[in-house]
Amino acid sequence: MSIYRLLARIVLAACLALGPMLATAQVQDDTARDLLKQLVEANQAEKLGLLKEISETGDERARGWLEAFRGGKLAVVEDTGNVVIVLNNRGRDWEIADALSGDNLGEMSRRDLETVRVNNAMRAQVDGILSVIDLTVTDPQGRLDAARNLLGDVDATLAEQLEARLAEEENADVRAMLANAIAIHRLEQGDAEAIDVLSGSLNPTARAALNTAANGDDPALAAAASKALASIEQKLKINHAAETLYFGLSLGSVLVLAAIGLAITFGVMGVINMAHGELIMLGAYTTWGMQQMLPGQPGLALVLSIPAGFLVAALAGIAIERSVIQFLKGRPLETLLATFGISLILQQLVRTVISPLNRTVVTPEWMSGSIMINEALSLTLNRLYVIGFALVVFAGLMLIMRRTRLGLEVRAVTQNRAMARSMGIKATRVDILTFGLGSGVAGLAGVALSQITNVGPNLGQNYIIDSFMVVVFGGVGNLWGTLVAGLSLGTINQILEPWAGAVLAKIMVLVLIILFIQKRPKGLFPQKGRAAEN
Amino acid sequence: MSVLDQLTNRDQVFDFLAPEASPVDVRHGPILYMEDVSVSFDGFKAINNLNLTIDDGELRCIIGPNGAGKTTMMDIITGKTRPDTGSVWFGSRHNLLNMNEPDIASLGIGRKFQKPTVFEALTVFENLELAMAADKRILPTLTAIMKPEYRDQIDEVLEMIGLQSLRDRPAGILSHGQKQWLEIGMLLMQKPRLLLVDEPVAGMTEQEMERTAELLTSLAGKQSVVVVEHDMGFVRSIAREVTVLHQGSVLAEGSMDQVSNDPEVIKVYLGEEA
Amino acid sequence: MTSSNMWLLRPLQERSTQIFLGLLTAAVVVVTILHLATPEGSALHVSAYTVTLLGKYLCYALLAVAVDLVWGYLGILSLGHGAFFALGGYAMGMYLMRQIGDRGVYGDPILPDFMVFLNWQELPWYWHGFDMAWFAFAMVLLVPGALAFVFGFLAFRSRVTGVYLSIITQALTFALMLAFFRNEMGFGGNNGLTDFKDILGFDLRSDGTRLGLFIATGIALAVGYVVCRGIVTSKLGRVSVACRDAEARTRFLGYRVERVQLFVFVVSAMLAGVAGALYVPQVGIINPSEFSPLFSIEIVVWVALGGRATLYGAVIGAVLVNYAKTVFTGVMPDAWLFALGALFVLVTVFLPKGIAGLLQKRRKATDDDGANAQEVAA
Fold it and tell me: Which stretches make up the ABC transporter domain (chain B) (predicted)?
């Protein structure tokens, strides 16, 4: 080992120890140029050493150099021997920049450049080295990612460095990840104690390492590894169940949103509105329209869509009630047919006026991404928002039906119309408001759906049968029933899905409901008593 | 009953081994026997430990304030509502709690609803035709032919209920009172052993009421009749034995004079009115 | 004449049935003559294409009669009759598939093309027997009948009626649609069954076979009509109406309402199956779209337009709507769904008794006029 390298090693150790501060150091340009030139010209075996050496300089530009090397974009100008980074390698003339100063040197014919060759094994090595560099960035998330990248790629020297890093690291997550990375290395060396560290880890690399150990020659080690693996499997199962539950709740809350408006119009008023799905569609298209009107502000548009979607769907619903449904009172089957006709018209209207194709609704930044609970479980944010939204809408409806004058009047009118009228309740007004409310909620469902599914003319159609099933399953006239039914149907569907496939799961759920209704025609939470018979 | 039971039960397999028609066993007196019957809807006790016995051929009036459980009691007898506890026997052989509505009807219990229910789209004649005692299974019904003797039977009942002139008009055009009569006529066509009549004279004129009273009293003896009625004048005109229901159980039983002097009954009725 | 078949003969003595059968026969005969006896290119000539189109309408008419039987007379609004139609069609399609033999693209003597394509090694068990016409034709009746029996048995026993029943019949056909879309089901998945060659040895593409199928459909419609009419004019028909209007009352008269409903529902499903079976060889394909809830609900609107509880109204409605559909989709395809949607609304709001209701009103008016005239004359 040359003195130079020894020096570099010390620098690196210092830099790891001192953390981000020292990463800003620069080595002499000459030294750097020399190293880079060697790297370009060296054979495969020598390259590895050189790469390490470059990284160990602690130079803040090293990351750029290594990345360029990894992408095959590090080159030497044949005439001058200058090391450059290729910025754009399309066409005959390539745009290049000086590797050391970063100055853009303009274009140069690619024949005058000698690029460095890199293979996959080399790339993996570079990744590892890059990760070590990243272990010193200020952002803890960045350090965590870097540590995760190192899992399984740790060798003896690196392990030492990581130990040092571990001593300095303050963030608990990063510490755990570093400990894991070191433990995997030690496990590979046959250290049984490392298993203790790894036994709680859900990381796939850690599991792979344990797996290798479990199948290894050392019986004691293998036994311990198997045990650790079993406990991990157990943990994974729980996480998997939690994930299924999350997906189920998310699907269920979509069902609840789609069905809850129907629970009002069908369940409470007894009106079959087959155009309910299209009211959902209108809500989704309102979101799309809002985003078209406010380009560049998808978040604001989405928030504004909540009242707008409610209004659009509510007005459409009231229009349907006034123009058709009121004339078909007491004739549920005819109402079903007429509103089905309306649903056809609305669908075709959207196809003709807007487009038969799906529209894209942008998801605002604060709704995209996911929350990582642990290595095996992360929750997507948009679905989390939808679950929350569904619960808020449900609570709001509950409040309206239970605590407001309107709710009281609705319940009065639905239980005994003539009596309610004789007590001075304007039944027609109640009809309009109730139907508007139910339809408006459908609009809200549409706004939510626009965030998790395609917005197209068939959007509503896909939900109408499911929505009816939810209402009937839960027990007509019972909002709690709708909530429970929606969430449980969503969950059942998700539980069946991996086992039976998506289509078959849906069929099975439908058949299940059909059978259930036959067992309990009035749903999960039936209304009892003499009044319910009529 | 399990399939095996059905197979081993020989009189179910071979029709000729089945008991004779009208198998109701009344040798021990009562034709209807309700013991300790209770039913509740969502915690509300509609029927509470009800005990009631109707003798064969008896005419019994049941009165009671609204919500006393009169209609629910009829629902239980006809199989529409299942009680939570208690037993209901028709004669001493048939446990009504094990049977459904058509079986109970075929056994010989006819019911007139509180709100007159006739088939409005069918003619008066057809209404009676459907009610007629006959084999009511699917294929026999499909291939049924209107024989002259059936026609005579129907015409006889038509005369009894005074609807001859409306024979071929849809039942939907009948007045409220006429519908009541038609429904009673349908009951008669069924030839039941026990008639349950819920408010038969609601919406009738004095004259019609008198005829109804006459008809019901003439039926008693051959058949047992249970009448639920609000109209005290009507009850007084036909009643021999009166049962007063209150809050789902029997409050008093006896002749009209007896019950109308019963202090408990007076309290309940006056309390209602006050 | 024995009493047991009296119910089938009774409609033949009825004036309305005689008129219907007369008109149907006349229509079939006229079309046949115009097709055979006039030269191609003549203004009067009815092309083979038109014959098949008319045959398709007659299939729909039979289907509509089946729906009217349950909806009009029993009060059960089935939104899943398309499923029975499609099952009958698939049974026929399986027979026609097996008839192809080794003339398919892959030339496999046993396996239909799509199975070879999916790399299946042998015929699934439920495809056996469909090479025999009698078996396949029996299945046309039995499969829809069995589904209707099982479904109806469960539903009617639990007294599921009205809107609930409508919704679960819709769910039923929706579930079947999803199922038949799956390749694993063994019914050709998305594409369904097609590329048929011949039926009972007759080439399906020949004009003669097409005419024959048209006539057969006419006969099936006539028989189906008489069967339905026989049921509705029997005492059982009156019991059905009784179940429709006052279910509880019927029960207290001693009728097993659920059995009446089940019987009529199964008969209706079988008729729908026959309609589907005759439909498939004429249009040359059966695929899962026949299970779509939209199709099933469309049938209901044919019946509503024609007038429920009349049977002949169902025929009028089916032919009219489908003729309109043919015209519309040819001239302006986008407008069809608007027209259909509007039809749903207009019929239910303004024409609750359908065209038949209008006809009856007019006839009644002229009858009354006649009666008045007679009175005046007297």
Answer: 32-272
Cα-Cα-Cα-Cα torsion C211, C215, C221, C226, nearest 10 degrees, comes to 180
Q: Indicate whether C1 belongs to any domain.
A: no
Taking 90 as the threshold, does the pLDDT of residue C375 lie above it?
A: no
Query: What residues of chain C have any CB closer than 8 angstroms to a CB in chain A?
Result: 77, 151, 154-155, 157-160, 162-164, 166-168, 170-172, 174-175, 178-179, 181-182, 293, 297, 300-301, 304, 334, 337-338, 340-345, 347-349, 352
Task: Say yes or no to pLDDT of B256 above 80.
Answer: yes
- Give residue A470's domain range: 243-533
- If one counts the domains in chain C, the total is 1
- Residue A180 and residue A232: Cα distance in Å, rounded? 14
Bridging pattern class, strands B30-41 and C202-203: unpaired
Residue A505 token pair: 């799961």
C102 within domain boundaries:
yes
Decide: residue B155, CB within 10 A, 0-12 exposed, 13-18 middle, 19+ buried.
middle
What was the pLDDT predicted at B206?
84
**Of C45, C85, C22, nearest in space to C318 by CA:** C85
pLDDT digits (tens, 9 = 90+) for C43-60: 888 899 999 999 999 999
pLDDT tens-place string over residues A502-523: 788 888 887 888 788 777 777 7
Which domain covers residue C161, as residue numbers? Answer: 6-377
In this structure, are A299 and A430 located in the same domain?
A: yes
Residues of chain A with pLDDT under 50: 1, 15, 17-24, 528-534
Write the CB contacts of B151 (distance below 8 Å, at least 6 apart in sequence): none
Q: Which of C5, C241, C263 sits opposite B119 (nearest CB)?
A: C241
3-state helix, strand, coil in chain B (%, to 5): 40, 25, 35
ipTM exceeds 0.85: yes
Total domains in the fold of chain A: 2
Nearest chain B Cα to A526, which residue?
B42
**Looking at the structure, do residues A255 and A108 belong to the same domain, yes or no?**
no
Cβ distance C341 to A504 less than 8 Å, yes or no, reads no
Q: Which chain C residues are closer than 8 Å to A340 by Cβ?
A: 297, 344
Nearest-angstrom CA–CA distance, A523 and B4:
33
d(CA A195, CA A200): 9
Q: Which two tokens stand for residue A379?
A: 């929750």
- Cβ contact, residue pair C255, B102, below 8 Å: yes
- Tell me the residue ranges of DSSP E strands in chain B: 30-41, 44-55, 59-63, 85-90, 94-95, 109-112, 194-198, 224-228, 241-246, 249-254
Measuring CA to CA, which residue among B48, B16, B22 is closest to residue B34?
B48
Question: Which among A94, A96, A93, A71 is positioned nearest to A84, based on CA atoms?
Answer: A96
Residue C367's pLDDT is: 63
Q: Using an 8 Å Cβ cutoff, are C231 and B138 in contact? A: no
What is the token pair recorded at A406?
Answer: 């309107």
Is the residue at A362 inside a domain?
yes
As a CATH number, domain B59-70+108-273 is 3.40.50.300
Closest by CA position to A330, among listed C348, C265, C361? C348
- How many angstroms separate the CA atoms of A369 and A377, rounded? 13
Taking the CA atoms of B184, B186, B191 and B196 in sequence, report the sign of the dihedral they define: negative
Listed residues A124, A152, A169: the one ending a domain = A124
pTM: 0.81
pLDDT tens digits along C68-114: 999 999 999 999 999 999 999 999 999 999 999 888 888 888 899 89
Looking at residue A421, its amino acid is R
User: How far is C-alpha A167 from the geometric centre of its chain's CA atoms?
Assistant: 34
How is C137-193 classified by DSSP, letter by letter? HHHHHHHHHHHHHHHHHHHHHTT--HHHHHHHHHHHHHHHHHHHHSGGGSS-GGG-E
